[in-house]
Amino acid sequence: MLKKIIIASAVISILSIIGLVIFYQSVKDEVNDIIDHKMEISSIILDRNGEKVSNIVGDEFRLYVKFDDIPPRIIEALLAIEDTTFFEHRGINIEAIFRAIFKDIIAMEMVEGASTITQQFVRNTVLTKKKTIYRKLKEVFLSIEIEQFISKEEILERYLNKIYFGRGFYGIKTASLGYFQKQLDELTLKEIAILIGLIKAPSFYDPTKNYEYSIGRANRVITRLHTGLGWIGKEEYQTAIDETPKVIKGTKTENKAPYISDFVIQKLNKEFPDLRTGGYTIKTTIDLEIQNIAKKSLKHGYENIIKKMVKDKYSKERISQFNGAIISLNQKTGDILAMVGGVDYKKSQFNRVTQGYRQVGSSIKPFFYQVGLNLGFSGVSTLYDVQKTYDYVDKNGNDKKWKPQNYSKHVKGQIKLRDALVKSKNLATIDLVDKLGANNFYNALVRYGFTDISKNLSSALGSYTTTMFKLAHRYTLISNYGMVVEPIMIREVKKDGKVIFTQESVKERLNSKKQAYLIINIMQDVVKRGSGRRARIKGIELAGKTGTTDQGKDVWFNTFTPDVQVHVWYGNDNSTPIYDKGVSSGRLAAPVGKDFFISLAKIRYFEKKFYRPKGVHRYKFDGVWENFTDISKPPIIKSPVEDALIF
Questions:
Q1: Is there a contact between 622 and 593 (Cβ–Cβ < 8 Å)?
Q2: Separation CA 496–CA 351 (nearest Å)
Q3: Rounded to whole angstroms, how far apart are CA atoms 340 and 342?
Q4: Got the DSSP string for 563-629?
Q5: Which string of b and e fits 473-498 if b means at least 16 CB within 10 Å?
Q6: CA-CA distance, 621 to 539, in Å (whole number)?
Q7: Residue range 628-642: average pLDDT?
Q8: Which of 165, 153, 14, 172 is closest to 86 using CA atoms?
Q9: How far is CA 132 from CA 113, 254, 529, 591, in A?
Q10: Which ranges of 282-389 would DSSP assign to H, the alpha helix?
Q11: Which of 93-107, 306-320, 405-419 has the highest mean pLDDT?
Q12: Which residues, in sequence order, are CB contacts of 211 under 8 Å at separation 6+?
């Protein structure tokens, strides 16, 4: 009998040893999973000054922080309440385990965990939170093993970045910004205690929902630091106990400029598929202060227009279709400073700057007049503002007639080229194209980047359709003295502190500075005394052009100083007329440009006067000074170029 007992005991022992070996080996295989574990780290979008625009978040919102950047008080508070002997044990606390086992046996269930920080780290990395003997054994073995490969400091770093702090915040840095809008080194002891107190039960101790419970838990952390451990003095203890910190209901994205964030994500998604989880830092060209100015200026103009609609008793359905957009850039560098794709992102995420295709109206005229100046005309060249009827054959071979009109329906007869653009005369513009040849204008505009422009005279009056973003790109040809500059928003992308992507604007000179100045100077008159006069600002030279499309469906104001370019658009999303009658881009859009630059001048320096390049000469005609270059010198040269009108 004894022999059988001995044999049975031996077999059980051997099987137990084999089982333990197998169990230990299976556990050991998971050590690498812990060592190589990659946390989701949210990416950050910054403006040009380093201010956060938004977070790009995946399933877990986490902003990673290195151990060296974690204040010692956070470590002390964590150890005080979670694992005082952390730096003394080797992964597990034997005394605490036996105490917990005793309580579990009495209760006949798992009631106390006695987990060290290492065990909590292991559990949160590769195990479930379900309380079972098997999971607990696995947790113990893994904790002992992992401390042979990872230092105590690295465990603390990983733990404080991995742990959940409620409200979608993972990691201590994320929680600090989410609850207090503070960096870790800005936290008070009470705020630290609130965050550390959240670890036990993030939902129950959420200070935005259960402030009193959260404060009570924090006070226990502070009391433990003082009374239990003597790690803080009486004065610091009392100050912390008395403090009642203000808690913020932070969001995961913290999105200050949603149209900007959407644009950045769209541009980088293909290049960086793990954009939401890879922990990238994206530096943009955006200036958040200028972004806010643009948003306020656009909203102010929008509200004024809405007031008129309400006064005229337009239906709510019609009013709901009305919207607007604005974009600003530095035309010398191509840096986009601000972009607002609509008046209310919450109501519509559609970006009218980059996605909306609209007719540009008279916004395109400066390019036609630039071509005219390049072909030898000048500001005092004579054009005819008279009504004509043009015969043409449509695409189906049918004979058609086209009879363009001025917006005001009035004609001036003879008019100087300068005044024709300043007053935005349609008939004089058609005469300019007629005189110098439609093919010449078409070829030049294609060279300027209008590759999809129609080969007909109506394009000179703004039938051309494009996005606001593309129009802003084309306008740099004029505003930047003949140099086309590609607008860009993403300056660089970093990962782990290293620059892995950069972008520079593509630039191409298509006109000489002196030729470009001729049109800039005329466009200054548009603001001084023409259709854009409601944008005039004392002490700031603006050049610009308004644009109103057929039946008043769109109103534009395109304006610039020597280094800041702005485009404003208003219209109905369903492409119906804004008002029943009397729509004027000078009234609706130009004041927004004025509002923008007045506000900008208060916070940023920018050049306020245009310079006249070498090679531009001034002569007086009829008592008025006019600019000429070598190809537009007096006496006024009329180009002999003529060709058939093309429709």
A1: no
A2: 32
A3: 6
A4: S-EEEEEEEETT---SSSS---HHHHTHHHHHHHHHHHHHH-----S----TT-EEEEETTEEEEE-
A5: bbbbbbbbbbbbbebbbbbebbbeee
A6: 27
A7: 56
A8: 153
A9: 10, 39, 83, 70
A10: 288-311, 316-320, 365-374
A11: 306-320
A12: 247
Residue length of the chain: 647
Instruction: Report which of 411, 446, 406, 440 is spatially closest to residue 426, judged by C-alpha positions.
Output: 406
Of 452, 480, 482, 483, which is closest to residue 465 (Cα–Cα)?
452
Query: What is the DSSP secondary structure assignment for residue 383, as one 8-state letter?
Result: E
Read off the tokens for 445. Answer: 């505009």
Q: Which fold has domain 361-463+614-647?
A: Beta-lactamase (3.40.710)
Beta bridge partners of 467: 357
Q: Copy the structure tokens of residue 366.
A: 């400066």
Per-residue exposure over 351-366, b if at least 16 CB sit within 10 Å of its own CB, e if not: bbbbebebbbbbbbbb
Q: Which of 305, 197, 390 is nearest to 577 (CA)?
A: 305
Residue 77 contacts residue 193 (beta carbons within 8 Å): yes
593 pLDDT band (50/70/90 cuts)?
A: very high
Among residues 130, 113, 110, 145, which one has the least CA distance to residue 23?
Answer: 145
Residue 78: burial class (beta carbons within 10 Å; 0-12, 13-18, 19+):
buried
Instruction: Characterize 370-380 residue by residue with b for buried, 16 or more Cβ atoms within 10 angstroms of its Cβ, and e for exposed.
Output: bbbbbbbbbbb
Helix, strand, coil shares of the chain, percent, nearest 5, are 45, 15, 40
**Predicted pLDDT of residue 123:** 85
Name the burial class of residue 244, with classes exposed (0-12), middle (13-18) and buried (19+) by CB atoms within 10 angstroms of its CB: exposed
Q: Which residues contact 366 (CB under 8 A, 6 or more apart)?
A: 421, 478, 519, 522, 523, 545
Backbone angles phi, psi at 392, to 5 degrees: -155, 165
The DSSP secondary-structure symbol of 98 reads: H
CATH number of 59-90+147-242: 1.10.3810.10
The neighbouring-strand residues paired with 570 are: 324, 555
Asked if 124 and 163 touch (Cβ cutoff 8 Å), the reply is: yes
Residue pair 272/56 in contact by the 8 Å Cβ criterion: no
Q: What is the pLDDT of residue 643?
A: 33
Q: Are 437 and 460 in contact (CB under 8 A)?
A: no
Per-residue confidence (pLDDT) for residue 322, from 0 to 100 = 97
Q: Report, in angstroms and rounded to the nearest whole number, the Rg of the chain calculated over CA atoms.
A: 35
Pull the structure tokens for residue 364: 């395109």
Closest-CA residue to 615 (of 504, 514, 496): 514
Gap between the Cα atoms of 33 and 370, Å rounded: 66
Nearest-angstrom CA–CA distance, 237 and 189 = 9
> How many Å apart are CA 469 and CA 438, to the nearest integer?
26
CB 257 within 8 A of CB 288: yes
Q: What angle do CA 74, 175, 154 make, to 5 degrees?
A: 50
C-beta neighbour count of 167 within 10 angstroms = 21
CB 568 within 8 A of CB 595: no
Is residue 30 scored above 80 in pLDDT?
Answer: no
Instruction: Cis check for the bond before 635: say yes or no (omega within 30 of 0).
Output: yes
**Ramachandran angles phi, psi of 220, nearest 5°:** -70, -35
Sequence spans of domains, the chain: 59-90+147-242, 361-463+614-647
* Most confident by average pLDDT, 8-12, 298-302, 462-466: 298-302
